[in-house]
Amino acid sequence: MRHSLPLAPQFYVTAPQPCPYLDGRMERKLFTALQGENAGRLNDSLSQQGFRRSQNVLYRPSCTECASCLSARINVATFQPSKSQKRTLRRNAGISRRATSPWATEAQYELFRTYLDSRHADGGMADMDVFEFAAMIEETPVRSRVIEYTDDQSTLIGTCLTDVLSDGLSMVYSFYTPDMPRNSLGTYLILDHIAIAREAGLPYVYLGYWVPGSQKMGYKSNFSGLEIYVGGKWTKLNNPDDYSPDTHPLSSDPIAEQVANIALPDSRPAR
Description:
By secondary structure, the chain is α+β, with helices and mostly antiparallel strands. It has six helices and 14 strands.
């Protein structure tokens, strides 16, 4: 018997689990598999609707009583670096960048472990071994790059797994050495991706989720030109204080309604 993939993506919902961003909350995700000839266009389309990629899965928060997680992207055309971001660029002027195919290395994993132990020792990735790390980097059905950053001694100090979308760059996951706090490497990696997008003529840099009330995610609102996905459209973020992490039983639409409102690309693969 011959089996084939379904013509349209099938969407599922995860079981509730503790939220990693806001204490006392429970998170739930809407997700679908990313596979087949149409994977690239599906990734493009759903990324533009607030989804994120993790290996061969696309997901978006779908919490029952909370809608605090807001997909965020930087509009490259309207971005202007702040004074502190200009200082960050100057401090890191000696850093070199190299873009490669999505292939995991021992040096990347060592840096990843150092980063997690310093910044996210109690996070969901804390127990990730070298094989799981390799899967995170290498299992991608779409156009992805690993962008490595080295200092003047050719030592790896930063890495970002980046998807190349039709309208921008999506920073899937980044990590860097914690031994250079004055260099603000997390900020620098974003600034450099803005530069890469500008050089490539791509209008956006996708950052994942901005979560008002979360210290972990608050830094994203420091970038001018930030847009957030609210109510089915991208909106410029003006005053971050206008957004609240308060819960409400009507925060999220029913799952069936959410799925019905997702715009899917043409199911025919591009030629």
